[in-house]
Amino acid sequence: MKLFYQQMLAFLLIIVTSIAIIGYSALNFATNQAYEQSYQRLEGYARSLESLALEDEQGLNHDFLSKMQVVMQGEDMSLRIFNNKSEQVYPETPAKLSIPKSIIQSLKRGKVIKIKNDHEDSRVSFSNRDAYTSILYPWRQNGKFIGILWIGSRVQNVEETIKREKRNLVTALLITLMVGLVLSFILSYFISNRVKRLSKATKKIAQGNFNVHLNHGETDEIDDLAHDFNLMVSALKQSHEEIKAQEQRRDQFMADAAHEMRTPLTTINGILEGLQYNAISEADKPKSIALMQSETRRLIRLVNENLDYEKIRSNKLTLLKTKFNAFIVLSNLLTQMKNKSEQENDSLVLHCPEKIEVYADRDRFTQIMVNLVQNALQFTKNGTITISGHRIEHGTQFSVRDTGIGMNEEQKRFIFDRFYKADASRAKLGSGESGLGLAIVSSLIKQHGGKIEVDSQPNLGSTFTVTLYDEGYEKYQK
């Protein structure tokens, strides 16, 4: 069953149930009220007759009662009088009526007996033809029980009032039902239409359209759902874009890796063929062998970088962390990178105390700093790369600052992702720029319980800051 019909049915069930309860309660109230008003009117007559009897020393004579009976018959009322022995004394008829002893005892105690319908009350009946609503009123004189007044009104008069109330009530309930039906339709349509909007938007998302936004207020749970839906779409869109970017970087990496591997493999294959067919002279053989070794190292480096990253990413790499003087590592690093920096006409500068203690895996710390300096040399030409280090509270901080091409915000966002290259057009194949260097750096630093930050602006260079904490103060990140 569709939501619209479910809503309609639910609203109608609530309305019909409410109407039934209200109608039943109102009808009972109207019935009781009608009978109660009749009882009050009859008691009023009884008290008046009692007062008249007390004022007249001879009591109510037969002529007065006959005239009173005529007046009361005009209002469909009837009067009977019984003595203290429950024998009818007025009107005088051949068929005498008597009142049960249980009722007499209640009357002697001063209780007024109310009879809703004497044809349905098994205790007493005062008319064989018409049903009466009546009361039995104790008649006292000087505190002494001397008789009983029975005053009755035809039930049909009371029921006429009840029927009129029923008609008015049924009319009101029918109008209420019609209005409720219309309101149920409007509310069901309104709610269903809002749910349909969510359903249509969901289908668009399933079809790959993430440019979906639902306008909403802040009134109810459906608006909250629409708000959460927009947040979900935004997260899905961002995730989708990141996946696409990762796919593009992976494809680019595969293309770069294939190109980088093809070049040394082609070189090695050419030299081997030359050696096989004696196409290379004896004088050139040492140079050819050295070239093959160089190209082989390039292939090994590419494979090792991938293996290193996988080990780090899956936490299969064991760190042997110790305290050591980082100045020695950084000094050796400058010596190793001197030739490469001179090729790019870059200057390497070290600003660091001759004794600066750091708690880390020495080999992996060296790998971190080498990759950062290589990255700086890759994107800096005719510039300066400054390596610095200093102690901070419970840790040591290092930075590599260059004066190269820098990065924009988008590039900074993905710079530590696998396969990402901040400037693919400037990537120098054959120099180790496989798109894994900074990803390895980030993973290693996280495994050390440290952190890395980057500050960069286009054409103003970049600064990578590494923080490694002392033993017991590491902040491991997922």
TrEMBL record:
<dbReference type="InterPro" id="IPR003660">
    <property type="entry name" value="HAMP_dom"/>
</dbReference>
<feature type="transmembrane region" description="Helical">
    <location>
        <begin position="6"/>
        <end position="27"/>
    </location>
</feature>
<dbReference type="GO" id="GO:0016301">
    <property type="term" value="F:kinase activity"/>
</dbReference>
<dbReference type="InterPro" id="IPR005467">
    <property type="entry name" value="His_kinase_dom"/>
</dbReference>
<keyword id="KW-0902">Two-component regulatory system</keyword>
<dbReference type="InterPro" id="IPR003594">
    <property type="entry name" value="HATPase_dom"/>
</dbReference>
<keyword id="KW-0812">Transmembrane</keyword>
<dbReference type="InterPro" id="IPR036890">
    <property type="entry name" value="HATPase_C_sf"/>
</dbReference>
<keyword id="KW-0597">Phosphoprotein</keyword>
<keyword id="KW-0418">Kinase</keyword>
<feature type="transmembrane region" description="Helical">
    <location>
        <begin position="169"/>
        <end position="191"/>
    </location>
</feature>
<dbReference type="Pfam" id="PF00512">
    <property type="entry name" value="HisKA"/>
</dbReference>
<keyword id="KW-1133">Transmembrane helix</keyword>
<dbReference type="InterPro" id="IPR003661">
    <property type="entry name" value="HisK_dim/P_dom"/>
</dbReference>
<feature type="domain" description="Histidine kinase">
    <location>
        <begin position="256"/>
        <end position="472"/>
    </location>
</feature>
<keyword id="KW-0808">Transferase</keyword>
<keyword id="KW-0472">Membrane</keyword>
<dbReference type="Pfam" id="PF00672">
    <property type="entry name" value="HAMP"/>
</dbReference>
<dbReference type="InterPro" id="IPR036097">
    <property type="entry name" value="HisK_dim/P_sf"/>
</dbReference>
<dbReference type="InterPro" id="IPR004358">
    <property type="entry name" value="Sig_transdc_His_kin-like_C"/>
</dbReference>
<dbReference type="Pfam" id="PF02518">
    <property type="entry name" value="HATPase_c"/>
</dbReference>
<protein>
    <recommendedName>
        <fullName>histidine kinase</fullName>
        <ecNumber>2.7.13.3</ecNumber>
    </recommendedName>
</protein>
<feature type="domain" description="HAMP">
    <location>
        <begin position="189"/>
        <end position="241"/>
    </location>
</feature>
